[in-house]
Give the backbone structure.
Amino acid sequence: MRNPPADVIVAIATPPGRGGIGVVRLSGPNLSTWMRGVLARDRMEPRRAVHTGFLGSDGAVLDDGIALYFTAPRSYTGEEVLELHGHGGPAVLGSIVQRCVELGARLAEPGEFTRRAFLNDKLDLAQAEAVADLIDAGTAAAAKAAMRSLSGEFSREVRALVDALVQLRMYTEATLDFPEEDVEFIEAVKARDQVDALLARVGAILQRARQGQMLREGLQVVLIGQPNVGKSSLLNRLARDDVAIVTAIAGTTRDAVRQQIEIAGIALHVIDTAGVREFAAADEVERLGIARTWAAAATADCALVVVDDAVGITAGDQKILARLAADLRRIVVHNKIDVSAAPARVEAREGETHVYLSARTGEGIAQLESTILEVAGWQAMVPDQFLARERHVLALQAAQSQLSAAGPMLERSPPALELFAEELRLAQAALSAITGEFTSDDLLGEIFSRFCIGK
Ligand SMILES: Nc1nc2c(ncn2[C@@H]2O[C@H](COP(=O)(O)OP(=O)(O)OP(=O)(O)O)[C@@H](O)[C@H]2O)c(=O)[nH]1
Ligand SMILES: [Mg+2]
């Protein structure tokens, strides 16, 4: 274990602004100096809330509230922790922090409390990330999944995989160390079957991690199409609100309009864009708008290509479809079925999904919503869904490809045991990075700097 830093940090742990209660938190060794200097009482019992005054430098009472003291290692950070629950005003809390700084504490950096918890083995890295994700969760489903990661469910599954890998590595290393035994060892443990079983497990976790990432980050959905097909009307319908201006004039939307909506607990960041038409027909503002349309399409997870069903798919629509990146998931939305008198429906044609609806009447919108999630790769929420980050998905993918490469090494004649062992080692390293067993300081800095101060 790395040695934790030995200074005392302080921060306001509650959000800035006014509130009924505001909490100042201190963590570090020997907090008795601070207890004596800040509290209007002599003794504090661990884990016992006491009502007391909080003192300023001149001994005057700044505020009064509840103080809570935790001894090391039975605290959030694993160090001594003192929590001062005062009145939630910026001036009051600021004065208490100021007093703590006078007594030698240092203002905490973002995420520093949680970083210390990690360094003191109170949390592993995936759990520490889950703390930030729980705070940032935008939907109840995301919060629930973050809590599951925080409680260590995701980490436990990753650790179980690492343990199985370590076992297999031990057999492999033993075989390498005693070549006279030939490959009996490794055959006896059915190494090939074990690798396949591990691959299946990694695949299953990867699938859930991808879902977890989607739950955490939401999906970028871009509305794209020719002018007047009803993109802004569709955005308003999806948002159940009048977010974008709708008129019968072609070229109404100039700038990209962003709106976050939620479908089945998944956050969708929907971008309505300027209708695409020949640059020659557009003025300067519209030209800039159209450029933004393509920029939005370049970063989206899914494109809704809107066409006017009363007109059908035109050459202009075809051009837009052809210009979208080949790997961009897309749904062709046939709007205005109230005019074309077509039934609302979902159809799969030539590898493309078509949804028929009316932004005006709302018919077919529910089908579009579920189709968006489906096309984006979302599967129904599993009961043990945890939250995950891109970092975790990439690590699982790396482990998957190393394990896939490992299997065939055993099939060579003679089996390439050294290479087999090396692939297993790399797979283990990738998985261990998820829980932070071998993680560089750079990565830790990067992860914790995105926390809020006081967490
Ligand atoms: N009948 C009918 N009219 C619709 C429907 N959806 C949109 N419209 C009408 O079509 C016209 C254009 O709608 P918008 O939502 O502004 O179209 P847009 O694609 O955003 O257009 P630009 O911003 O100019 O690119 C408006 O007059 C809408 O009322 C629909 O489902 N049915
Ligand atoms: Mg518009």
Summary: Residues 231-232, 244, 252-253, 272 surround magnesium ion (ligand 2) (CB under 6 Å). The longest strand covers residues 19-28. Residues 191-217 form the longest helix (27 residues).
